[in-house]
Automatic annotation (TrEMBL):
Residue ranges occupied by any Enoyl-CoA hydratase/isomerase domain in the UniProt entry: 40-331
Annotated metabolic or biological route of this protein: Amino-acid degradation; L-valine degradation
Function comment: Hydrolyzes 3-hydroxyisobutyryl-CoA (HIBYL-CoA), a saline catabolite. Has high activity toward isobutyryl-CoA. Could be an isobutyryl-CoA dehydrogenase that functions in valine catabolism.
Protein name from the UniProt record: 3-hydroxyisobutyryl-CoA hydrolase
Keywords assigned: Hydrolase
Lyase in keyword set: no
Length: 360
């Protein structure tokens, strides 16, 4: 895959150990935010470097970083359809693009330090990197809830909903990694049996959001974002509930455009393979960066990441102003002679394992 010798200054460290290859993201000061070169520290990966993206758009125009998304989404697809099992050890923060680098792999190992989120709607983006594929396949309408609110999950919750395949206490990770490096097999069942030797079944905290699936399904199964909010507000009328009230506040604080296109994306993703999901998301992110219909990405980054006043001025400012016609445009091809759809590598079903074929 790569040289076994990596400098400590490299943004991805590559090691060869027996029969395994270990890739370590290495931008600890940036919480391993993804770059065009790409950890160590307290984060697995905090996602794409959105502030850097916005600086680049302002300096060089919307096309200046499209190639990063093209390469990133292609990498997500290669991970999702790779014939050899990938084991992602999520011992820390895993957000946004960090999920693209892990959720598509065969095994996702959470720990007591894991913190998951897809917080894109708060900054004028949408859950991408194939999130419309993996969020839409969670139980009930939990994926819509996570994608619209950016809610955070711990390792136990990730295991419960299926985002993680195993839970291993961080103290056991060195032993797990050593055992994985000695495996002379790419058989998923055998690899899973090794991980299971170090795994535990954690208990959900009493206040876990996963214990709210009944309310989440009632509310987030609604057809539109407006109807989701109305359903949540009806729940509050019936009983005082701080969690529901907080969820309403989060949705009302998020970009109306981001909420609308995110909900549509997850709903469409339920009926698509991982490849078509990534192709569609590439169209969407191209429109978001172009800013023809809304410049919420620039405004969200300013308010949340740069000036940090946490008071974004979204435009359009209300959900009702983001019509179905506007949402449709984000799913269409970009009308620019230099732009083209994402073209993913062709995968033959004849030499792929069944769990990969199922994603296609």
């Amino acid at each position: 895959m790569a040289s076994s010798v990596s400098s400590q200054h490299d943004e991805v460290l590559v090691e060869e150990k027996s029969f395994a290859r270990i890739l370590t993201l290495n931008r600890p000061k940036q919480l391993n935010a993804l770059s065009s070169q790409m950890g160590k520290g307290r984060a697995f990966c905090a996602g794409g470097d959105v502030a850097d993206l916005v600086h680049a758009i302002r300096a060089g125009g919307w096309k200046s970083r499209l190639n990063n998304f093209l390469k990133g989404y292609t990498s997500n697809y290669l991970m999702a359809t790779y014939s050899k099992p990938q084991v992602s050890i999520l011992n820390g923060i895993v957000m946004g693009g960090g999920n693209g680098a892990s959720m598509h792999g065969r095994f996702r190992v959470a720990t007591e330090n894991t913190l998951f989120a897809m917080p894109e709607t708060a900054v004028g983006l949408f859950p991408d990197v194939g999130a419309s594929y993996f969020l839409s396949r969670l139980p009930g309408f939990f994926g819509e809830y996570l994608g619209l609110t950016g809610a955070r999950l711990d390792g136990a919750e990730m295991l419960a909903c299926g985002l993680a395949t195993h839970f291993v206490p961080s103290a056991k990770l060195p032993m797990l990694e050593a055992a994985l490096c000695e495996i002379d097999s790419s058989d998923p069942g055998f690899i899973s049996s090794i991980i299971c030797q170090y795994s535990e079944q954690p208990s959900l905290k009493p206040q876990s959001v996963y214990n709210r699936l009944d309310v989440i399904d009632r509310c987030f199964s609604q057809k539109t974002v407006e109807e989701i909010l109305s359903a949540l507000e009806r729940e509050v009328v019936d009983r005082r509930d701080d969690w529901i009230s907080a969820t309403i506040r989060i949705l009302k604080k998020a970009s109306p455009t981001s909420l609308k296109i995110s909900l549509r994306s997850i709903r469409v993703g339920r009926f698509q393979g991982v490849g078509p999901c990534l192709v569609r998301e590439y169209r969407m992110v191209s429109h978001v960066m172009r800013g023809e219909f809304s410049k919420d990405l620039l405004e969200g980054c300013r308010a949340i990441l740069l000036d940090k006043d946490k008071n974004p001025k979204w435009e359009p400012s209300k959900l009702e102003l983001v019509t179905d016609t506007v949402v449709d445009r984000y799913f269409s091809k970009v009308k620019d002679e230099d732009w083209e759809d994402l073209k993913l590598p062709v995968r033959s079903k004849f030499n792929l394992p069944p769990y990969v074929i199922a994603k296609l």
